[in-house]
Amino acid sequence: MKMEEVSVSSLDNSKLEALAQDILSDLVEDACLGLCFEVHRAVKQGYFFLDDTDQESMRDFEIVDQPGLDVFGQVYNQWKNKECVCPNCSRSIAASRFAPHLEKCLGMGRNSSRIANRRIVTGNNTNNKSESDQEDNDDVNDNDWSYGAEKKGDALVVLACVKFQCD
């Protein structure tokens, strides 16, 4: 029997009571089944007993709301220097200067490639290598590619040397 086809006024009290009882039992069954699924999932996932705490253990984790103390109850000193320790050189550096220091200390700054090239050239000059190896690294310290303002006379000397090598 469909609800759309039957009007409620045409039903007698016993049928109306039975219909209301069926609707109520369906609602209670859905609520109980939903609760059972939630409890089962919580037990399977392992978070069912997480809310079971006693009041004594909760006092250790209360938020402190007193002047001069942080939320954990520790004395708060806002003027304390914030310092970090460099993982590369183990120096203590102010937190505001830590990023620039680390950039220079690890050699990852914008000038690092120039510094690395300078170190390579310095290392090659100190080692006794063959003449061909040092000629390969000549391009690293080449002044022709620098952007600095140089005298025109120096450029003419370099061009003259290049011209004589080609001939």
TrEMBL record:
Q: Does the keyword Disulfide bond apply?
A: no
- Keyword Nucleotide-binding included in the entry's annotation: no
According to the record, the residues making up region (Disordered) are 117-145
**A GO cellular component entry from the record:** SAGA complex
Zinc fingers (SGF11-type) by residue:
84-105
Q: Where in the cell is it found?
A: Nucleus
Where's it mainly located? Answer: nucleus
Q: Which InterPro entries match?
A: SAGA_su_Sgf11, SGF11
Instruction: Provide the GO MF annotations for this entry.
Output: transcription coactivator activity; zinc ion binding
- Its domain of life? Eukaryota
The alphabetical list of record keywords is:
Activator, Chromatin regulator, Metal-binding, Nucleus, Transcription, Transcription regulation, Zinc, Zinc-finger
Q: What is the protein's quaternary organization?
A: Component of some SAGA transcription coactivator-HAT complexes. Within the SAGA complex, participates to a subcomplex of SAGA called the DUB module (deubiquitination module).
For this protein, the record's PANTHER family field holds:
ATAXIN-7-LIKE PROTEIN 3 (PTHR46367)
Q: Which family does it belong to?
A: Belongs to the SGF11 family.
Q: What is this protein called?
A: Ataxin-7-like protein 3
What gene codes for this chain?
ATXN7L3
